[in-house]
Amino acid sequence: MLPEAKIFAQYLDAKVDDEALLIKYTKAIEKLKLSLSEKEASVLRYLIKMPFLLPFADGAWAFLNPKNGIRKRIMVMSAFIETEPQFVQLFLNEKDVSFSVFKMLFRGSVAVLRGIIGVFLILVLGWK
């Protein structure tokens, strides 16, 4: 489960080498009983080998299947990263507030584009 935790943290822009955080993630997954279906486990193994596809798949699941097991696990990692003091700068935007509306529109457009590409990816690879 550690490789999965690392790619989820990397996807969320957190460079996590903290074993304690990764172990917390593993324990949380076990405690919450967030098991994956056989198909989801297969997709996760593929994403671990090709992590650059994760943003597209996650974007598509947000539209098509928000209760996907992999997506739930990403949300668990996100919750842990939000609570760690060393990652506070990922969530605060104190320095650069100029053009924030334009940045928000741009990032939103990129997210929608990733989702659309991800939908095609999921359909082609049969991950739905």
What are the salient characteristics of this protein?
0% strand; mainly alpha; 6 helices; 128 residues; single chain
Account of the 3D structure:
This protein has one domain. Helices cover 69% and strands 0% of the residues. It has helices at 2-11, 19-32, 38-49, 54-64, 69-83, 100-125. Helix 4 crosses helix 6 (100-125).
How many helical elements?
Answer: 6
Uncertain runs: none
Level of helix content? 55-70%
The radius of gyration is 15 Å
Q: Overall 3D geometry?
A: flat
The number of distinct β-strands equals: 0
Total number of domains: 1
Structural class: mainly alpha
**Multimerization state:** single chain
- Percentage beta strand: under 5%
Give the H and E element order.
HHHHHH
Q: What is the average of the pLDDT values?
A: 86
End-to-end separation in angstroms reads 22 Å
Largest sheet: none
Q: Topology of this protein?
A:
Layout: H1 2-11, H2 19-32, H3 38-49, H4 54-64, H5 69-83, H6 100-125
Helix pairs in contact: 2-5, 4-6
Question: How would you summarize this macromolecular structure in one to three sentences?
Answer:
The chain has helices spanning 2-11, 19-32, 38-49, 54-64, 69-83, 100-125. By secondary structure, the chain is an all-alpha fold.
